[in-house]
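Batch manifest, entry 17 of 40.
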Amino acid sequence: MSGGLGQRHVSDAADTYRYNSWQLAGQYRFLEAAGRRPALALRLSSWGNRAASTESNTPVNVPGAILNTVKVTEPSDQQVQADLIGTWTMSQSLDVSALLSLGASRLSYGALSATTTRNGCDYQLSFAGNDIFGTLISPCAATGGVIQQFFDSSGDYGVDVANEIAWRGSFMQLKVNSAWRSGPWTLQGGYLFHAVQREAVDVILASRGKAAYTQNHNITLDADYRFLPHVSVFSRAQFSSNLFFNDIPVTYNSSTASRFGSKYSLFSLGLRAVF
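Output type: structure tokens
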């Protein structure tokens, strides 16, 4: 059994987002190694990310409007994953493993609100599914009649709110990894290929002529030094072809997808406890 908790702060030029992450996994070795045959194990896990809220102060272009600010409460993702792991022992200090993973993702959120400008006036928007309720933000210096409140539907502009920010999907992973051990030291290196199929959101992006990103390549290097029988310090470098792809799925939606074409590097330092 293994588990983990973490927190990540993600910043861009204007905004900072804070996500809490969690993971719980159990692994069972059902076949021991014999000759050239690898040891085989099955690992089942669940993991995810959650934020109390995320708020963007960078204008977001959506069909039919420009949103000046956007706030989402309780955005989260949850994954269930099954891994088949084969491990070959090359020597007392070196082993090589290969992994095949299948999993499913589900995103959710609590509420969505935004601000926009219409006819020179600012409005606070509240969303209930695809229904929009707008309330005037005073004061408004526009001349002529000023609308105090209005109702609208995002569906009239080709926007499906729930499917664009709270999608479901399935994914597949292939991984090869090598680990070398000497005394208190463990050095590891691995390559991961990740492919995801999302419901609705990527079809919506294609209908708007925008790119959807469905594959990621990841290289990880890890150094671990055990200074107590069950406690070690580790450093890790992770290099990905696409931003946050299989780390924080909740960050992917129809408005942010274009950012996922960017390369991504992560450097970590921490403590690891084994029980």
